[in-house]
Amino acid sequence: MTSVLLVLLSLLAVNQALNVPFCFAQPRMPKYLADVQRLEAQYKRLEAVAILDKVLRENPNNLIALWYRVRLLSELEQSDNLLNDCNRLIAADPKAERFRCIYTYRAIVFKSQDEISRAIKDLDRSRELGQMEYQYHVCRAECLQAQNKLKEAIVEWTAIVTQNPERAHYALFRRSTLDEMLNLQDKALADLTMALKLKPKQTDIRWSRARLLEQLHRYNEAIADYSFLIQLDPTDETKYFKRGKLYVTTGKYQLALADISKSISLDPMPSATIFKFRSQIYEKLGNNALAKKDLDAAAKIR
Question: Do 192 and 82 share a domain, yes or no?
């Protein structure tokens, strides 16, 4: 009897560590759940959801499968149609002891429906239960931003930076946006720089820093960021155009000409504006013939 109890207790500890609701009548983890967890660990969430959909078609009352599906779809930002599912899980487990953070997931649903007050109410319930994990902070930050409570939203992103190192780069990126909205450009720049130290190849963060550096007239640093982006993807005409404009600003006309010409060559339908812009560069370089040729090319584009 003692050995059986020890086995059951060990299984309970494993299930709690994995956030898997435990049932003494079914001590072994079902195969579908093991497959779901494996796919989730591989960031193949849609494949995991497909498995759960099949399980729920066969047994619509499988609340464990339903909880996993709600959680995965919420993390995939596909939560619009999950309100009834969340309500079912809360009715079965009002204290969120089995289905952890379910109030947060319902709050995400309410947020997607622009019902911010109801979302905040559910988030408060999550906080009462001590269930303030990553999705909680993200949802509360976005709700607070929707209410124009930007400083309070920053507090939530800061909590992620300190508590979730693996997601700190994203929280810093989102925090930088709020910094800019509060006209704290230097702080926004510091956040973006810190985020890039964590994820140097994160292109959306690099784009944002390049743009902000340009706004702050720190052109050479912005050029360096655009150069890094070009190294990551040398087929994007926009990056050459952005860097070319900064080369013009800094008086480096030959480098500007090379970038703008590259941008034109990569763009299947270059605009009249870019030909006019290159015409101006040719004029700066004293090549009036090519300047006129580009003006003529611009005139032919409707």
Answer: yes
CA-nearest of 111, 94, 104, 159 to 127 is: 104
**Residue after which a domain boundary falls, among 201, 216, 231:** 216
The separation between CA 169 and the C-alpha centre of its own chain, rounded to angstroms, equals 10
Please tell me the distance from the alpha carbon of residue 181 to that of residue 81, in angstroms, as a whole number.
32
Domain count, the chain: 2
- Residue type at 217 in one-letter notation: H
**CA 22 centroid distance within chain:** 32
Express each pLDDT in 17-42 by its tens digit: 344 444 434 457 889 999 999 999 99
Report the CATH number that the domain containing residue 116 is assigned in CATH: 1.25.40.10
29, 72, 137, 154, 199 from 142: Cα distances, Å = 35, 19, 9, 10, 23
Q: Which amino acid is at 292?
A: K
CB 291 within 8 A of CB 282: yes
Same domain, 104 and 241: no
Q: Which residues have C-beta within 8 Å of that of residue 129, sequence separation ≥ 6?
A: 95, 96, 103
Same domain, 156 and 226: no
Residue 37 tokens, joined:
């967890």
Is the same domain home to 188 and 222?
no
pLDDT in tens, 226-279: 999 999 999 999 999 999 999 999 999 999 999 999 999 999 999 999 999 999
Break the chain down into helix, strand, coil percent, rounded to 5.
75, 0, 25
Same domain, 253 and 131: no
Closest alpha carbon to 84 in 101, 100, 99, 105: 105
Report how far residue 234's alpha carbon sits from residue 225's, in angstroms, rounded to the nearest whole number.
Answer: 13
Contact yes or no for 33/20 (Cβ under 8 A): yes
Q: State whether 108 and 243 are in the same domain.
A: no
The pTM assigned to this predicted structure is 0.84
Please report, as a single letter, which amino acid is at residue 88: R
